[in-house]
Specification:
Layout (H helix, E strand, L loop, with lengths): L8 E2 L3 E2 L3 E7 L1 H4 L11 E8 L9 E7 L5 E7 L5 E10 L5 E11 L2
Parallel strand pairs: 1-8, 2-8
Antiparallel strand pairs: 3-6, 4-7, 5-6, 7-8
């Protein structure tokens, strides 16, 4: 992978029967300039390892911005046991920037 490519952060695994809010903390990119997240964030899901013909179906509802304006939050449920998913979080900021981060995690069979 090129050195300038996004390096997904590993998050804890989740069981197929679980429903939980996952998030991405952008504090490290925002705090130095006093910037905050704003507008409408987008979150997408894809398969990193394994097979799921519709990985986006693990995303439940619309993503939101945390009350402190530093995190994008997204509910996740379901998925295919034994599959690793990559979530891509994208959000505009009050200073006109657009931030992107990725996280990956495994879905385990319950």
């Amino acid at each position: 992978m090129p050195s300038n490519a996004l390096q997904p952060l590993q998050q804890d695994p989740q069981y197929t029967l679980a429903s939980k809010v996952r998030g991405m903390d952008f504090t490290h990119q925002l705090s130095l300039t006093g910037d905050t997240l704003t507008g409408t964030p987008t979150v997408s899901a894809s398969v990193m390892s394994g097979t799921d013909p519709s990985p986006g179906s693990i995303l439940i509802g619309a993503p939101s911005i945390s009350s402190n304006g530093m995190q994008v939050l997204q509910r996740v449920s379901g998925g295919v046991g034994g599959t690793a998913y990559v979530m891509t979080f994208l959000c505009p900021t009050t200073q006109g920037n657009t931030l992107v981060e990725q996280a990956f995690f495994w879905i385990l069979e319950a």
